[in-house]
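Lab notebook, bench 4. Still working through the backlog of constructs that have no structural model yet. Next entry is a single chain of 126 residues. Request: give me the structure tokens for it.
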Amino acid sequence: MSRGRGGTSIPDSTAIGEGRSLLEINKRIEILSEKIDMLSSEISELKVAFEDLSKIKEFLPLNIRFVEVRETTVEEAKREILEYCDKHKGEIFYPDDVADELGLDLKTTVEVTEELMKEGKLEEVK
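Model written out:
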């Protein structure tokens, strides 16, 4: 940029931004546009694949569920697992059922369940 006599900034046609020329900026825009086009194409392909999966899902022998796992502390997981157990007294259930139902990580659920059994708060059914 160059300054005029009154202190007003006048843009220099060859240097825009952090020392980048207009030609460099246009090239960067072109590259980004190509990447956007590629991503749009990949998104379209994923949509088609998802639609295909949705169509064949009804023919699968297993009932597939998608579970969103959320982050939680070990103490929160303990509290939630104990609450789950209280609500399902007398029932037999497995850590993966509890993890799915509560949205907990399976590894964390198994570890917390084992810890609760050591503490005598849960019993393993044999």
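Notes after review: Residues 1-15 have pLDDT under 50 and may be disordered. Residues 74-118 form one domain. Flag for follow-up if needed.
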